[in-house]
Amino acid sequence: MITHSTYNTASLWRATITMLVVLCLQAGCTKTTTQVPNILINNLGYLPHEAKIGFVTDPFAITFSVINVETGEIELQSPIISEPTYAAQAGDLVKTIDFSGFNKAGSYKIQLDTDEGSSYEFKIGQEIYTDALSKVLKSFYLQRCGVEVLSEYGSHKACHLNLAHYYHNEVPHEDVSGGWHDAGDYNRFAVTHSYSIALLIHQYLEAPQKYVDGHFSIPESSNGIPDILDEIQVGLRWLLKIQNANGGVHHKVSIKEWNGEHLPDQDSTRQYIFHISSTATAGAAGVFALGSGVFSDIDPTFSSKLNRAALKAWDFLDQNPVTVPLGGFTNPPDVFGGEYGDQIDLDERLFAAIELFKMTGDTEFLDFFQVNYNKFWNRSFYVPSWQDLRNFAFYSYLKLDQTTPGLDFDVYNDLLSLSKDYAESILNRTNANPYKYSLNNNEYYWGSNSIALGYAFDLIQAFKIHGNRQYREAAKDHLHYMFGRNPIGISFVTGIGSNPVKDPYHQFSALTLHPNPIPGMLVGGANYSTHLNNKPISEFQAKNYEDRFRNYMVNEPAINYTATLSYVLGYFSHPPATKEHTL
Hints:
By secondary structure, the chain is an alpha+beta fold. The chain contains 15 helices and 18 strands. The chain folds into two domains: about 1-125, Immunoglobulin-like, CATH 2.60.40; about 130-570, Glycosyltransferase, CATH 1.50.10.10. It has helices at about 10-25, 130-140, 190-205, 225-240, 280-295, 300-320, 345-360, 365-370, 390-400, 410-430, 450-465, 470-480, 505-510, 550-555, 560-570; strands at about 1-5, 40, 45, 55, 65-70, 75-80, 85, 90-100, 105-110, 120-125, 165, 190, 250, 250-255, 270-275, 275, 530, 535. The strands form five sheets. A six-stranded mixed beta sheet has the order 1-6-5-9-10-3, with no helix packed on it. The longest helix has 24 residues, at about 410-430.
């Protein structure tokens, strides 16, 4: 056992804390009615030889102990030397505990000297993120549409095989099965597919040694191709299906309105193919180009097909220089939910242009990027999401070889400077938040978890470009947040961590006989606009969350959320120990 002496007498310390608590209560930091632990840690775990930070909201705690779950022995005891800090977004007084020097592999929990219970269990080990990543990636297989899905968590027969109808003329399309169900329901959207595919491709390209055949056990395992590429093909093949003969890509395939819960293969509601949109077309063009490069050696025929599709999509965009439809896609009056509207398509066009340049070497595409990169109203980077792909384009440009013919160094240096300023702003927000989290007060909206992980993606890119290790550590802070080091104390990822989400709005999970939801899906997270029975869940935006099936505004997973998690988790994971690394 390692023991450190305390630095303050208990009586003086407790008196000081009591005064702070009174002042905090007077300032309005009342507790939410949600029961959360006093010790908030990553309840998945920590990598050895990296920072291990947790948070304590018990104002009277003076010391903490790390307890070995298997033996019950105290492995480390240490004073809590940090001063309490008020976390305004959560209404908590937060103190930091640091056990970074403890690296022994095993399962542990944290205990306070106040005997107010212990933390959830967590692990220390080299493989923890690797194992979690296999579950996250396999969740895409479990979201597949149009095929039989088999797993220990639930199964369904092939679904949505009926021909879909074009919304405006009711002419049947020959087939739009495939791809992934978008979220807890069974609609499919081009823009979320493209965003998710882009992240999965970048995840693979940046560290291909981490991804092997048999990584997460899918029907294609043992075909000689890394499982992640098999799954990427699923998404790309569906986008190819919904590309029109004129090169445009249809915005979505969906039903008109929610029609109750049922298993995927029991959904007989007519699905519709909606209008082409330029945002869908440009996003697809970008991932077609990316995919063409990834599969050039693995599957040359598929690569060529993607190459042609990317150029065809660009031809459509070239012939339609204004957003299609004008003002962006909107649902018809009798269609409800899942609009994914976007009034500005320049970010998607920039993404398409830079990836098409990399695919073809044609300076037409580089010129388009360099002429148009700065035409956004705030002329800056912006957190990536299905609605804004500019950062994907900007980082791709900054990773071009500086000897690239036609490269404009004024543009390059401008983006280099802007990217650093942007990363510094994320880092400063993260460090200023007692929970080490970057969201602004007004960013706790629908899907807030994916926005935060979008910032983590940005920090990783900034680390690669500028080399500041603080960016990397701040990105990892966001991963800790997702797995339980947050004001709720819950892992927002199904089936991962010792206190994961258990009741997400996910129809397939809810209607199977398995007691737990399918693992590896990230739910949307706290949403300051959501109400239950016309009352907020909490007066604090970071706690406006509940693990309740019906509250899809905070507790529904989506492929674009999970893809962002997959990228960040993949970055910090290690390669599988063996080829046959399955669930």
